[in-house]
Write a structure and sequence with these properties.
Strand content: 25-35%
Number of strands: 6
Order of helices and strands: HEEEHEEE
Shape: globular
Oligomer: single chain
Largest sheet: 6 strands, mixed
Strand order of the largest sheet: 1-2-3-4-6-5
Helix content: 10-25%
Structural class: alpha+beta
Distance between the termini: 63 Å
Number of helices: 2
């Protein structure tokens, strides 16, 4: 006997590419499941955007907060502005907003060909690596404890 459930009769998996309807449904279902498991805590989007005077995007960050946890999904700075400190300012702005929302922890991951040396400089500790990224690279996971209600420098300061 195995722990695998028997396949429902007349059910067929359909494999394909992008499926917006499926993605929305799964997001709705998992959000409801996770909210119930976390005593009603809901995820909220978190974004930080930097534009110049002309409105051109310099960089940005996307992520989410969920009760006491925040996560950065994507961080990008325009190639011509990568050594101007914008990455640090984007991360600090996200941390400040996460703390304002009551978060005590924040996570982020990066590939070894991206920025694994960047996050420790901001106080993040490496928590694990996953092999198997194309090109022989790894996915590096970081974590940082936040002080609730943290205030400090804001973007552009």
């Amino acid at each position: 006997m195995t722990s695998e459930q028997p396949t429902a009769p007349h059910a067929t998996p359909h494999v394909g590419g992008a499926d917006d309807d499926l993605e929305k449904r799964l997001d709705d279902e998992l959000t409801a499941f996770n909210t119930a498991a976390a005593d009603g805590a809901r995820t909220e989007p978190l974004t930080v955007r930097v534009t110049d005077e002309a409105g051109t995007l310099i960089g940005g960050l996307t992520g989410w907060t969920w009760a006491t946890l925040a996560c950065v999904d994507m961080l990008w700075v325009h190639e011509n502005r990568r050594h101007d400190g914008w990455g640090s300012r984007l991360m600090r702005a996200a941390e400040e907003e996460a703390a304002r929302r009551g978060c005590t922890d924040i996570t982020v991951s990066t590939y070894t060909f991206q920025a694994p040396g960047f996050y420790p400089k901001l106080g993040y500790r490496e928590r694990g690596r996953i092999e198997g990224v194309p090109g022989g690279h790894e996915d590096v996971h970081f974590h940082k404890r936040l002080a609730p209600g943290t205030t400090g420098k804001v973007l552009g300061a």
